[in-house]
Amino acid sequence: MKYKLFGFAVTLLLLLANITSASACFAGHYQPEVPESLRR
Amino acid sequence: MSYLAFSKRWANYLAVQTGLSSEKVLILTYVIEVLALNLLSVIMTLLLGLLIGVLPGTAACVITGFIFRHTAGGAHSNSPWRCGVITITIYPLIALLAASLSGLSQLYFDILLAVSMLLGLVAVILLAPVDSPSAPIISPARRKKMKLISVMIVLMLAMLLLILQRSQWVYARQVQLCVAFSIIWVSLMLSKQGYQLISLIDNI
């Protein structure tokens, strides 16, 4: 059960990473370095 | 790649629990940092807006800033903490300014809205999308698409201002000015002057 929850959290975060990397920036005035694999 | 300690720690914890590759750990670290810092900034901004009595206006500024910068991009600070200070102070200040000017005569009010829209439109047509070295836009097709979406967003915000013009909502005028001033701010962040301002703050 615990593994499934962590797996779900990781999947969700990876999906959000793809979504956030598709935008030019987020709400704030700071941009962390986008990993190479997400750059397009 | 340099990330903050908390995001590295959380990502490593999740990686240990689920057995992720190092590449995926890097992506997790990035997304945790983006989400945590932005969430914290937004909450603190809204709290400050609430404290100084301009919560609806501050919320309007944050939403305008988010949808505009999402595709148009703009200048970024080198430090997450300086960025936090800029984000947390600028939007409530804009809302405060809007609240104090909401009694402006209709003529000046309309001129202000028109100027902000024109400025926003010119800025996105000429400058958007403005990427940063930390998040470069590589594909020309993506760049083109983001410019088009940015223009559409400015037009949508102009429509929102027109709808609010006819609205009976008690905060309508205040929110209109908040949207207008936020557009001026985020347009400035697209320009060379915006970059100079942020680098000046970075050097404090």
Provide a quick synopsis of the model.
The complex is a heterodimer of chains A (40) and B (204). Chain A has one helix at 2-21.
Which sequence of SSEs, written as H and E, runs from N to C of chain A? Answer: H
Order of helices and strands of chain B: HHHHHHHH
Determine the mean pLDDT of chain B: 91
Over the alpha carbons, how many angstroms does the gyration radius of chain A reach?
A: 13 Å
Separation, N- and C-terminal Cα atoms of chain B: 24 Å
Shape of chain B: globular
Question: Which structural category do the helix and sheet elements of chain A fall into?
Answer: mainly alpha
| N-to-C CA distance of chain A | 36 Å
Describe it.
The complex is a heterodimer of chains A (40) and B (204). Chain A is 50% helix and 0% strand. By secondary structure, chain A is mainly α. Chain A starts with a helix and ends in a 19-residue tail after the last helix. The mean pLDDT of chain A is 80. Chain B has 204 residues and is mainly α. Chain B has one domain (54-203). Chain B is globular. The interface between A and B is large, with 29 and 57 residues.
